[in-house]
Amino acid sequence: MSNNEKKLVEQITSMDEDFARWYTDIVKKADLIDYSSVKGCMIIRPYGYAIWEHIQRLLDTRFKETGHENIYMPLFIPESLLNKEKEHVEGFAPEVAWVTMGGSEHLTERLCVRPTSEVLFCEHYANIIRSYRDLPKLYNQWCSVVRWEKTTRPFLRSREFLWQEGHTMHATAKEAKAETLQMLDVYADFFEQQLSIPVLKGQKTDKEKFAGAVATYTVEALMHDGKALQGGTSHYFGDGFARAFDIRYLDSDNQLKYCHQTSWGVSTRIIGGIIMTHGDDSGLVLPPAVAPIQVVIIPVQQHKAGVLEAAEALRARLAGRYRVSMDTTDNSPGWKFAEYEMKGVPLRLEIGPRDIEADRCVLVRRDNRQKLTVPLAELEAVVSEQLEALRVALYEKAKENRRARTYTAHTLDEVKSIAAEKAGYIKAMWCGESACEETLKAAADISSRCIPFGESPIGDSCVCCGSPAKKLVYWGKAY
């Protein structure tokens, strides 16, 4: 490693020394964000936004393959409209930003800057749904929302953030529940297959469910430091909003019936999840599916005859299949190596005079720094193989981190001991009573992450009160 590379990498705090500082160093030094004069709001820089664009493109393709259409709703919500669903309003009241003036005039009714758009969709659906022939309505919106957070952190929690929110209406509870679980599966598959982040799929407890929902389902990921991150949620609303907004349809039996509703969403906090799952002390490590640059070409001794031409020929060969960049600046190769490591580019391709003579190049993987000497005739095949190998390796490494940081507790004392000494998930049985959930939070500073699908009980008694247990729950500290 060159002196320039060492100096650059040393600008990032070691994650073992200070994980929070390490995270902040990366989002700044990898050119993902900048801070703005608007307190609690971030500027997403081009490299960071490019990651979001790839996330958006991949998810949007999945949404459309499952029959959803994109729509756009207003930024503002009249207070009277927001108040039509009491439980929903109470859940968001502390985070709502209000507009009270328009120009120099006081508004006759306050406008809420959308924290989420359920009520706007409901108002619209009430206007357009008349018959069973109008159902289902499968809409999605890409937008920003505002929640007046007290403590903010880039990507993970900011007052304005980008997200998508799906809102669908169905004729029956069965159809709506199927939609809710289908979209949860879409998220889980996306996280695991394209972001290389293993997730737990499960249901939230009533305490942790979305305001106004009958049931909330989640994909939960474990970060490198042992804290959980809620990756995406899918909610079944039943007909509660439909009754509040009088969203009814005339069924084929000539009876008026209330619709059944879902919503589901993920946000730019995914980018924070990628950083904290895969990053290392040299910077980002990006899954190929969302990397703005998948292969960076570094000409070595580029001042020598034929080097730039050879590098450009390789760039042209790969450009049709991958996102490729070539760095021909006058910075040293060592500086370039460190720069693209910091930016998390999956593969680095090096070519110099000796490589040209031997009809080869050198490929370096970002995750393990493995160097491969590749005959130029085999370049496309090897690049494809190594991108896939990197994707799988990132997933397996993250899965092993989750396995190593998942603990089992059978008593409250065990929960408290694990939470105080270790970071990760704690599997424990629960009676279903909110009082025990509150006790665990107060005693161990943990929250319920999810009631996982498909896992067997690990006991018969509640970890807190000793009463008969109803559910296995994953508990932990979370972002």
Which secondary structure elements does this structure contain, and how are they paired or packed?
Layout: H1 3-9, H2 19-29, E1 33-35, E2 42-44, H3 46-65, E3 69-70, E4 76-78, H4 79-82, H5 86-92, E5 97-102, E6 105-113, H6 118-128, E7 137-146, E8 160-170, H7 173-193, E9 200-203, E10 215-222, E11 228-238, H8 240-245, E12 248-250, E13 256-258, E14 260-267, H9 269-278, E15 295-299, H10 307-319, E16 324-326, H11 333-342, E17 347-351, H12 353-358, E18 360-365, E19 371-375, H13 379-404, E20 406-408, H14 412-421, E21 425-430, H15 434-444, E22 447-452, E23 471-476
Write out key terms for the chains shown.
479 residues; 36% helix; BirA Bifunctional Protein, domain 2; 11-stranded mixed sheet; 3 domains; Rossmann fold
What does this entry look like structurally?
With 479 residues, the chain is α+β, with helices and mostly antiparallel strands. The protein folds into three domains: 18-278, 2-Layer Sandwich (BirA Bifunctional Protein, domain 2); 293-390, Rossmann fold, CATH 3.40.50.800; 406-476, Translation Initiation Factor IF3 (2-Layer Sandwich), CATH 3.30.110.30. Helix content is 36%, strand content 27%. The protein has helices at 3-9, 19-29, 46-65, 79-82, 86-92, 118-128, 173-193, 240-245, 269-278, 307-319, 333-342, 353-358, 379-404, 412-421, 434-444; strands spanning 33-35, 42-44, 69-70, 76-78, 97-102, 105-113, 137-146, 160-170, 200-203, 215-222, 228-238, 248-250, 256-258, 260-267, 295-299, 324-326, 347-351, 360-365, 371-375, 406-408, 425-430, 447-452, 471-476. It has an eleven-stranded mixed sheet, sandwiched between helices. The protein has a five-stranded mixed sheet with strand order 16-15-17-18-19, with helices on both faces. Strands 4-6-5 form a three-stranded antiparallel sheet. Strand 20, helix 14 and strand 21 form a beta-alpha-beta unit. It is globular and about 80 Å long. The two termini are 35 Å apart. Residues 1-9 have low confidence and may be disordered.
